[in-house]
Each structure stands twice: as C-alpha cells, then as structure tokens.
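FAD-binding protein
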Amino acid sequence: MVGVDPALVLCYRDEYKLALGEQRGDFHVLLVNEWLAQEINARLSVKVSGEPWYFFGHCTEVTALPGAPAQWAAISPILARSWKMSA
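Structure:
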C-alpha cells in the first residue's frame, strides 16, 4: 500500500502490524517518497530546471521518519526540479 498523507500512512502501518501480526505476510505500507526512493534508478540523469520547490514535511513524517527529507531530495531529480528542505 502506498499513501500520500504521512499521519494516515504511519497510522495504517502500525495498525496493520498490530491487527494482523505474522499473518500480514509480505505486505508493506509505504509513504509515496519511501516507495519512489526504492524505485529510482541511481544512474538516472535529468537536467534540473526552473525555480526550486520547497519541501515542508508533515510534523508526523519528520518526527517519525527523519530520513524522509533525504528521500525527497533523492527523488527530486526525477521530477527535474531542485528542492529546498525546510525545517
């Protein structure tokens, strides 16, 4: 499962784990940036153009997943944009 809203996705991640335990199988609940970070080809080369986009992480995402801003930074070349991370 891939979701966009960090608070909801992280809640589902915990709830599926608690509700299903080992019966869950190979089922993962990921934020879109986590999924995209897994799918990116490291050799992809895209020319970044235009004004930068600014990343404002959801408070739940930034607190629970401190690596999220770095994942978004790794994804930004795919979108041919430069991103600035905001605290």
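DSSP finds four helices and four strands in the chain.
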